[in-house]
Amino acid sequence: MPQPVQYRGMTLIVPDNDSEWTAFYAHARAHRLVVRRCTACGLLRYPPTHACPWCMDLGWTWQEVSGRGTIYSYEIVVHAIQPGFKELTPYAVVLVELDEQRGQPTPDEALRIIGNLVRPDLTPEPDANVAIGRRVRVVFQDLAEHMALPQFTLTDEPAQGRVWRLPE
Amino acid sequence: MKTLRDKYCIVGVGETEYSRGSGRTTRAMAVEAVRRAILDAGLAARDVNGMMDYQSGDSTLANHVASDLGIRLDFYMDVVGGGSSTEALVGLAMGAIEAGMCQTVALYRSMNGYSEFRIGGTGARAAQPVRGLDLAQIPFGMRSAGQNFAPTFMRHMYEYGTTSEQVAHVKVAHSRHASQNPKALLRERVTVADVVGSRWIVKPLHLLDCCLETDNATCVIVTAAERARDLRHRSVHVMGVAGRVSKPRLDFHWAHGPITRVAGYYAKDIVFGQAGIGPQDVDVTGSYDAFTFTTMLQLEEYGFCKKGEGGQYVSSGAIELGGRRPNNTSGGHLCEGYTHGMSMVIENVRQLRGTVDDSCPGAAEGVHSYDYAPGRCRQVKDAEISMNLGWATPPIGSALILRR
User: What is the CATH number of domain B8-117+212-403?
Assistant: First the structure.
């Protein structure tokens, strides 16, 4: 079993028999963002799970996605709960809607993923720059030989739809 | 639809003191709360033969609590669960009785939610390793309930124009109610300016948008209506119940929108369908106010106002004592203390009995002044139907409609 990863005071465990995350993190460590694709209906899903939530088929393959998307919602953590995050505050947690499969299979569904909004050097993006509608791309934060976290950083692409942030 | 409307009653309610440092075990607190509820019903230990509780590895199981009280059980279950479990367990207790497994069931929750297993995610919970699905959120500094719910609240502000000031009215209302509740931890009335001026915890939540981690135990007792008639208080009947109703993709609900939709969207037809009533018939609500926003989201999802108009509704005065439909007349989780939902059911039972424990000298006999000035009365006049809106997370909720 790979050693547990210590990150910001947390112990992250991905044992060898973790059939959901082991390969996901191996891809992430190679700086590829992958999701599962149903071999029956072709729909993509995240987080990694074992049956297709739309057709219940058990067949799946990993598929790399572009890692580009739009901030769908967010929060700014000012008072950190985990001690290891206190030095990062304020930090942004973003819910990113990936470009693949937006509005499918129903208009309210999408591939959405949680990450921190960071600058290219992986430090927190200042609160004033975080807004719903802004475009982002994935970057990877290497944690260990076998693990990296997908994070997101702003791009200079035009915003998607209305840009909104919490009024000061 | 099969319904057990009016066939079952909540006949006893009880709780310990709400504190931030109980200095005793969850076992000691559970025993006290269950005993109080049994005595409140006018029952003896031998009359209770069913027991259920909910917990998350942070409490004492029913076999110990029953043993301490000399209760021999014909049925018990310990359930893993937090918010929204209370209403669900009322339904399960009815089912156990209906199946002939037992006749009278005590339901309890006991937690050192401040001094031991802090609900906010610090303390004993924070030391647990992160694995499995938790890897999709916790490594990003998204661990506490507030951190888990905030993107839902933020998106509601984006989609509907909901403001911090509107939602702050939930705290204002509940603080006014708590000022009439001698049991409440926070009895000081606050203003909208106090709420939006308090420090940020996780935007869009200020400190005063968040509830109070609390040490306490709570209990309600369920039995059949024909048995309830002979007991101490006016019967409070279950008209309808929905338990842990879920949205699709409930373990990662971000995948299935709109993320501003909460479980009540699915629960409302179940619970109102059983009860044969609509939101307009409800006199008092008890909504799970882990945060100001959770109350707002549930009130609109259950149809007390239109979807998206929750901000206007909660800031209209409707949810305050003296308003159209007061919510959380005890002060709720925001002000009375955090109980994982049980206390709001207890409060509604007392409202329907007409014996809310406010500062009116004749409260226990149902004599109230209906003067809602600070430190006075919190009884809703002629409350006939109440509704509890239980919340676990945005995609998981329960509901319970009671009548006197």
Answer: 3.40.47.10
